[in-house]
């Protein structure tokens, strides 16, 4: 009788371990999928940027420095690997694009150019998609990391070498409050 009880307890423990392991694998796969979704949106962004730069290049003859910064930031973002490096490179690209869009105010021809307006709209739409993808990724990372940190599933996670996933974080410059100058000149 005691042998049956011991076998049942061992069976329950093994079943529990299998369920926890499979849950961790499922969450790990969701994290990887969420990262790929961010990559899809970033690729869309990277594809739109050269079109925008070539569209405005002729009209912004005196703004070569800004266009060069956008092109260089895009190249760094495309080449970045891993969550941390990709986050930093994306921050640089976002700032470079912000500088480009700010310059549009100095060029009435660009503000009314249909192609520029369409590309701006596409980029804005893409930025929203990227934002939603990042949020989803971070939500899944939180679930995955929590599952690895709570008892008793942390035993299975450490036993099978699961590593915590890295959050997609805004760089420090994004946390600073923007300076607003409403002074009239």
Question: Domains counted in the coordinates: how many?
Answer: 1
Averaging pLDDT over every residue, what do you get? Answer: 85
Gross morphology: rod-shaped
- The CATH architecture classification is Up-down Bundle
CATH overall fold name: de novo design (two linked rop proteins)
Distance between the termini: 92 Å
The helix count comes to 7
Range of strand content: under 5%
What is the number of beta strands?
A: 0
Helix content: over 70%
Could you state the CATH homologous superfamily?
Answer: LemA-like domain
SSE pattern: HHHHHHH
* Estimated radius of gyration: 24 Å
Fold and architecture overview:
This protein is an all-alpha fold and 185 residues long. It has a single domain, classed as de novo design (two linked rop proteins) (Up-down Bundle), CATH 1.20.1440.20. The C terminus is likely disordered.
What's this, in brief?
The chain is an all-alpha fold and 185 residues long. It contains seven helices and no strands.
Sequence-ordered SSE layout with sheet pairings:
Layout: H1 2-57, H2 64-79, H3 83-103, H4 108-112, H5 114-149, H6 153-159, H7 172-175
Helix pairs in contact: 1-2, 1-5, 2-3
Question: What are the defining features of this structure?
Answer:
de novo design (two linked rop proteins), 0% strand, mainly alpha, 7 helices, 185 residues, disordered C terminus
